Automatic annotation (TrEMBL):
The keyword Cytoplasm applies. Coiled coil: none annotated. InterPro entries: Cytidine_deaminase-like, FdhD. Required for formate dehydrogenase (FDH) activity. Acts as a sulfur carrier protein that transfers sulfur from IscS to the molybdenum cofactor prior to its insertion into FDH. HAMAP family: FdhD. Mo-bis(molybdopterin guanine dinucleotide) binds at residues 243-248. It is found in: Cytoplasm. The keyword Transferase does not apply. Gene3D superfamilies: 3.10.20.10, Cytidine Deaminase, domain 2 (3.40.140.10). Belongs to the FdhD family. It comes from Virgibacillus siamensis. The active site is at 105 (cysteine persulfide intermediate). This is Sulfur carrier protein FdhD.
């Protein structure tokens, strides 16, 4: 069992009128308080693994750093639930109150628009993936979703090239999964020019903004988008692909990054 991601819980189960008790594997949840230059900045509710990449990705998403080198020192005390970051940059704490960032869906981050204006990027990459490559990447992505398969309680994000998945991250919070991925990219100085991001959840406006901050031009997701997400993706020149299931997918924006089999003719659907 993955001790950092999973725990066991005694569960009473009914099947019709039959009752039994089993131990279920449950996704773990913990609070990590981020201290910046000796002061408390935020508390994140997360899956307590890959904390260092999570903190790096979070700080970058917040616009506090632009590279891992700006973090002079990062110490994680998992037992006490603290991460201590010393930054080379000055952070404004005036008129701030303690923030608690939950793992639930929906807008949970403060300074949503202010921070996004500072950190969101228009993507100019010219990568192309075939529809067949997208299908295969999602199939490989599903195979890596072990913790989701065992608990049903986490999100997953992955970085991939046309050749396959490079790295993946899980968390109970969709933002945290993307931040962990972002932190890994920063730590390893991975170029995003020929990469895409795979995501297990729906495509919300916040997810598009996060992908923009990371710098990827192609987002491949299993679920549906929102209209605001697609407006943002169109504006930020991100290709949003949703409902990737078996050999079906929807390309909503900037379709030039996804190509079909040239031997197949176009079919136009109408109501």
């Amino acid at each position: 069992m993955d001790e950092k991601s999973l725990s066991l819980w005694s569960t009473t189960k009914y099947h019709n009128h039959l009752k039994e008790t089993e131990y279920d594997e449950i996704a773990r949840e913990a609070a990590i308080t981020i201290m910046i230059n000796g002061e408390q900045y935020a508390t994140i509710v997360c899956t307590p693994n890959d904390i260092r990449p999570l903190v790096l990705g979070f700080l970058a998403s917040e616009g506090l750093i632009r590279s891992a080198e700006q973090v002079l020192k990062l110490t994680v005390d998992e037992d006490k639930g603290f991460a201590y970051a010393e930054l080379s940059t000055w952070v404004e704490f005036a008129e701030r109150t303690e923030r608690w960032i939950g793992s639930c869906c929906g807008k949970s981050r403060e300074f949503y628009l202010k921070q996004d204006v500072k950190t969101a990027k228009t993507i100019y990459s010219f990568i192309q993936f075939s529809a067949e490559q997208v299908y295969q990447l999602m199939a490989d992505f599903d195979k890596k979703a072990e913790v989701y398969g065992r608990t049903g309680g986490v999100h997953q994000a992955a970085l991939a090239s046309a050749g396959g998945i490079i790295t993946s991250a899980i968390d109970i919070g969709r933002h945290n999964a993307l931040d962990k991925l972002y932190g890994h990219i920063m730590q390893n100085r991975i170029s995003l020019k020929d990469k895409c991001i795979l995501f297990s959840g729906r495509i919300s406006s916040e997810v598009i903004l996060k992908v923009s901050k990371i710098g990827a031009g192609l987002l491949i997701a299993k679920s549906a988008p929102t209209d605001l997400a697609l407006k943002l993706a169109d504006d930020l020149q991100i290709t949003a692909v949703g409902f990737v299931r078996e050999h079906k997918l929807n390309v909503y924006t900037h379709e030039k990054r996804v190509t079909g089999d040239p031997s197949h003719r176009d079919v136009r659907f109408s109501n």
